[in-house]
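So, can you check these tokens?
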Amino acid sequence: MTRTKRMTAPDAWQIARKESKYVVSTSSGPHDGSALPIGVWLRDHMQFALNTKEVRKILHDRQVVLNGHIVTDEHIGIDVFDIISFPKIDKHYMILVDEKGRHNEHEISADAAKIQLVKVASKTTIKGGKTQINLTSGANFIGEDTCKGKDSLVIGITGDDRFAVQQHFPYAVGNMVVIIGGQHTMKTGKLAEILTQDSSLPNRVVIEDANGDKFETIEDYVYMIGTTESFLKTWGVDA
């Protein structure tokens, strides 16, 4: 796999630039190339390892669970709302971004680590007339024909509850959102208006914050987080 030079790594990774020439790259997978490789997170963010050799040992010992799956590849990317657990030491984290788009982690409880907030990319009808829900992470599952693209779901990620839908937050005016990109990253509010573009440009939306102030951003940056209040409070996130 192509290595990434530390000097050219995304700012969101928050790594030392001159420590060495190269750093672990992000593999193709659930997120794009700007996602933080889990090997970098383990070493440079959490200090669970001193070097790549120790990172690989932790992963190969099957000590890391990402969104309900055991991870053994240090190149797998992690991004906003991913859930990472270390069952042996009973530590659990949700990945977030700050107002500058930089990755950080928020420690959560074991119970909170059993569910994940995900975004619907699309849905398709498959053999037998069943509805397949396709998520922006690349995962998919058979579900109810009630959600649409851009909706958010809270799903189980462990055991028999895996992919069981526990909450559904439609992409609709009046519902709660958080912004996960651009100059308004991590701001929350109500979706006040959807501005459809008559061109190839992305649709824009108007968000109204708790103070009644309004701002615009592009549709792709919007993540639904509730109907009347933020469901992120379930994970102890003050947003």
About this structure: The helical segments are 38-45, 52-60. The radius of gyration is 18 Å.
